[in-house]
Design brief:
This protein is α/β, with parallel strands linked by helices and about 475 residues long. The protein contains 19 helices and 13 strands. A five-stranded antiparallel β-sheet has the order 7-6-5-4-8. The radius of gyration is 23 Å and the shape is globular. The structure holds fe (ii) ion (2 copies). The site of one fe (ii) ion has 6 residues, from loops.
Length: about 475
């Protein structure tokens, strides 16, 4: 079987895997021939795509990490917020994953807008347990990991669904309410004597970042457990690859670009590396385009997550991209990204309508011309008006004359005036809310703390991965990705 996006499905194609739906009122069984009605329904409900089976892909079998009944029971348990059922599901997820022949979570999930939170919770538990297994955690902690995963967003059910699914930018009040959900989740489980303390900590801290910039407490990496770090990273991964009413999905490889870019800042490095081993950047049954111009299907994995074994569509030739002989062949795109004509895959989450109406002004300040050009290059695909300047003083003078841009990306070490001083001057000019991202090659705790004194939105280490920078810029302009 292979995965096709909703827009690529055609009547007559044979479904290669069951599709589950909210309340299970709509479910398509493996083997069914798609009709135009089924396809329109899947598209209208936000399903990303479906697995189909055809002559190109009939030998590709993607192993389900958990059984269909474990999945549906898990979704129902989350939906009903039934602690007894949740505990059983958490154990069942561990039991199912232990039976996998190869610990590799290849399945693109098939879910609609409607059951996002429920389905997301089960997915996060699956990813988290798989990562914890790979990292060698003992059985007892695997169960705790699973419990934390399945319970982490229970508190979202206390938040108005219209805020959760709002397609537009959230107001400050709405975002503040979203940020209460780890506390709400914790409140639901805190008195449950069957849940161990590490589970409760992971749940309340699942939005904390390595550098202390997360919520609700602003704890740093050293203050939270490994379970919490795993939960945090896989939670963001699952959010990135999912289509939501307010954002398009990232391809897995793009999501990993983001996670790797955030290593040591948002995410724990070992956790991200373990994720790369068990969650393939190019899952089995994914269509890719090669630098040779040929289209191919991913048929097996290798030690390098970015260089799988593929089979060409046109002559069925097998190519192991991880062999030296094929070193000059690259995967240039995944159909996932290339068919998205809105360009939204990399935009993550900002209010596209508003951006289209008027490009946002982003000021880039860096004394190194090369650095400036790299930042400009990374942001050039998006619809921004970029204002490159080479010193803090130039930035201050520009703002005095023209007013503030929508965002400033500021280098720190500059010869005449350092970035933190420049920002502090700009703040003193009355621009208290102007979002600032510091971009620097210095990754020290002192520097992070210094940046915090001037209320920086973000702190990014150079050299930065373009996908990570674009995503962080989108978040600085609109934090709703983090909902
Ligand atoms: Fe959450
Ligand atoms: Fe979550």
């Amino acid at each position: 079987m292979r995965f096709l996006l909703s827009q690529e499905l055609e009547p007559g194609m044979i479904l290669g895997r069951d599709i589950v739906s909210p309340g299970h009122s709509f479910m398509l069984k493996k083997g069914v021939a798609l009709t135009s009605d089924y396809i329109s329904y899947l598209r209208s409900r936000g399903y990303l795509g479906a697995y189909i089976t055809d002559s190109d892909s009939e030998d590709i079998n993607v192993e389900d990490p958990i059984s269909f009944s474990t999945l549906t029971e898990g979704i129902t348990a989350v939906q009903n917020c039934d602690m007894e059922e949740l505990m059983m599901s958490a154990r069942q997820i561990v039991a199912d994953l232990s039976k996998m022949k190869q610990l590799s979570i290849d399945i693109f999930d098939l879910r609609s807008f409607d059951d996002y939170t429920y389905h997301h919770s089960v997915n996060v538990a699956v990813y988290a347990v798989a990562v914890a297994m790979y990292m060698g955690l003992p059985e007892e902690e695997l169960v705790q990991m699973s419990q934390a995963g399945i319970c982490h967003d229970l508190g979202k059910q206390r938040i108005d669904i219209d805020i959760i699914n709002k397609p537009d930018k959230l107001t400050d009040e709405e975002y503040a309410e979203i940020k209460n959900h780890p506390q709400y989740s914790y409140d639901i489980i805190k008195d449950n004597i069957e849940l161990a303390a590490p589970v409760k900590q992971a749940v309340i801290c699942h939005h904390e970042n390595e550098n202390g910039s997360g919520y609700p407490f602003g704890k740093e990496g050293s203050e939270v457990s490994l379970l919490t770090k795993i939960l945090h990273a896989v939670d963001v991964y699952d959010a990135l690859i999912t289509r939501r009413p307010y954002k398009e999905p990232c391809a897995p490889v793009e999501a990993f670009e983001y996670l790797i870019g955030g290593e040591g800042i948002l995410f724990n490095e070992e956790v991200v590396e373990a994720m790369r081993k068990v969650i393939p950047a190019y899952p089995l049954g994914t269509e890719v385009k090669l630098s040779t111009g040929e289209k191919a299907l991913v048929v097996a994995h290798t030690d390098d997550p970015l260089r799988p074994i593929v089979r060409l569509f046109h002559d069925k030739c097998i190519i192991n991209l991880n062999k030296d002989i094929n070193a000059d062949i690259e995967i240039v795109s995944e159909h996932f990204a290339s068919t998205d004509n809105t360009g939204a895959v990399e935009r993550l989450n900002e209010d596209r309508q508003a951006v289209k109406a008027k490009p946002l002004d982003i000021m880039l300040v860096d004394d190194s011309l090369l650095s400036l050009q790299q930042t400009e290059g990374a942001l050039s695909e998006d619809n921004y008006h970029l204002i490159p300047l080479q010193s803090g003083l130039a930035a201050i003078n520009y703002i005095k004359k023209n007013g503030a841009p929508d965002l400033v990306i500021m280098d720190i070490e500059m010869p005449t005036m350092d970035g933190v001083t420049a920002v502090s001057t700009i703040r003193n000019m009355g621009y208290d809310d102007l979002p600032i991202i510091f971009l620097t090659s210095k990754n020290t705790r002192e520097m992070v703390l210094k940046c915090r004194t001037v209320n920086a939105k973000d702190y990014i280490i150079k050299p930065v991965r373009p996908a990570y920078l674009r995503a962080r810029v989108a978040i600085a302009l609109d934090a709703s990705l983090e909902r």
